[in-house]
Amino acid sequence: MDTQKMESPFRFMASRILELHIDNTYVELHNSPDNYKSIDVSHNISEILEQDNGWLGAVELSISVNITDSLEEKDDTSAKKYILNMRIEGGFSSGKNMSKEEFEQMLHINGSAALYSIARGFIISTTSQTLVGGQVVLPLLNFTK
């Protein structure tokens, strides 16, 4: 397979974590029907710049993970919770052969998917180090929907 023929003109440059917040009252987390997990993911294009040789753009991805031991309201001393909020930003570029509209579409779909993949690995690692007996594995997402 000749990967040069398959290479995309849309390129990933770098990423950085803008924010990471963890609030954890679990000592040990096991997969249990008593645990309720919700995951929220959103993204926005924070910048698109035209350069002499193409386009530069930035995408910011926000991920919130919430795990609790009950859907019922409890006072703060008895509720078990794990909250992880993460914001990650990535920089992307393309050559002159791509229109601004195409580049923006690539940022929405491919840029978000690339950042989600990075964040997914980071969250697996972080949760396995901050929770005894468990880790949070984010589901794969289809960013075309």
Bulk shape: elongated
β-strand amount: 35-45%
How many helices? Answer: 2
The total of beta strands comes to 4
- Spans of at least 5 consecutive residues whose pLDDT stays below 50 are none
Q: What is the residue-averaged pLDDT?
A: 89
Structural class: alpha+beta
| Helix and strand pattern | HEEEEH
Question: Separation of termini?
Answer: 30 Å
Describe this entry's structure for a reader:
The structure is a single chain. The protein is an alpha+beta fold and 145 residues long. It contains 2 helices and 4 strands; from the N terminus they run αββββα. It has helices at 3-6, 100-130; strands at residues 11-24, 36-51, 54-68, 81-94. It has a 4-stranded antiparallel sheet, with helices on one face. A hairpin with a 2-residue loop joins strand 2 (36-51) and strand 3 (54-68). The model has no long low-confidence stretch (mean pLDDT 89).
Which key features would you list for this structure?
single chain, 145 residues, 24% helix, alpha+beta, four-stranded antiparallel sheet
Question: What's the layout of helices and strands?
Answer:
Layout: H1 3-6, E1 11-24, E2 36-51, E3 54-68, E4 81-94, H2 100-130
Antiparallel strand pairs: 1-4, 2-3, 3-4
